[in-house]
Structure prediction request, 473 residues.
Amino acid sequence: MGEELRNVLRDLGERMPPVRLGDDPWTAGRRLRRRARRRAAVASLVVVLACALGVPVTLGAVEQRSMTGAVPAAVPHRIGLPYMWQATVEQDPPGRASLLFSGGDHLGLRGIDPIDHEGKVAVLGMGGKYRMMLYGEAERSAGIDVLLSPDSRYVADGSADGWVHVTDLTTGDRRSFAGGADSTCCTTPVAWAPGGDALLVLSHADADADGDGVYPSRLLLLDLATGASRRVGGDLGDRWGLRTGSLAAFSPDGTRIAVAAGGELTMLDRAGTVAWSRELGPDERLAGVGAFTPDGSAVAVFRLDGCRSGCDADQRAARTWRTGYVDAATGGDGTGPALPPAEGQALRALGWRNGRALVALRYVPKPGVIMGESNEWDDTGYWETGHVQLVSLRPDGRVQVLLDPPDGVRAMDVARHLMEAGRFGASPPDPRAFPARPLVLLPAVPVLLMVGGVAGAVLWWRWRRRRRRAVSR
Prediction:
């Protein structure tokens, strides 16, 4: 460096004002570092919250784009189990459904009140979306307590407040109907009319007024256009002695209703006028909501071969169900397609595939459950069932498994228009974690509490240390 440059730098240095330092520059520096750390912590928290709130929205948009037109309109040949926090129908409507399903051995299908919802029913939209319908305080079974409409746009359910609810799967809107003067307390949907214009509802009292342990029940026909309801048929006896999964069935034209209760099969019209009634044997059951043959000429009845009382799980699994027919016009013995027998704890008919094969649910018993002796035992019930399969009883003598869902699925309901058209075999995507209910943040609570506790302890220790130093001075 030349002498001239040194002189210039020396001159500039002499002109600069001196740096003013505080009394304790070391403490001031530490204070600045603490402020910087606090700013970094706040910035990190903001980033975490932004991700928590933004990722569900982003992934929901990705799901929407990826599913558009990706899945053909058909009943699936496989399904996945929903996440515990899966979005609801109201939150993000899935559109028309191909399937409803429910169960009890998986957090996605059964929650814990009040953290989650004890009753859950999963809705699989035709576009592949898995969405949930939530019910607190009680378990629900798809196809028995919660019914999919024939056009698969609506879902009907009842509650203990005497109302019937219908949810639109395309909008998420939920409409409530009053039961009217004939409704006594609690309601359960039984069957949709084929045109989707009416709903058959079971209404029963919430207490045994006579002290005999009997909860009287009756059937109401609800007109969905007007909201009016009227009673059809007589008293059905004790609500808990009814096999609600196969209590009644509409004829294909929607003008007649077959009802099985009290050991009798009765044919009614929509006004409740009885056309005929016949006794059912102790081994006979109305086949289900799909019991009428496609031409409406006969009603299918399942006849049991096997254990009837005090059966263990193995004995119930070995039961055999054979299909017979009752003439729909006279109530005498009828004729219908010759179908193969099927084994299982129970069999419940949903409808007919291409007018030839009977589509049914086969109920597999829950291991370790012994059949009770009371009339409240229900072989299609939530607690009695361990698993279900969707099967087809074919005229060629085969029992074809159409859908064998994951373990823990105890009930299903199928879109009738897809079933009748023979549309099976879709391959929907697996459930996606987002969009999600706020419940998705629940697993993070312990972590946040732990982090907060550690951070609080550190801050407290540092505060105590500063106080000691201040006192020592």
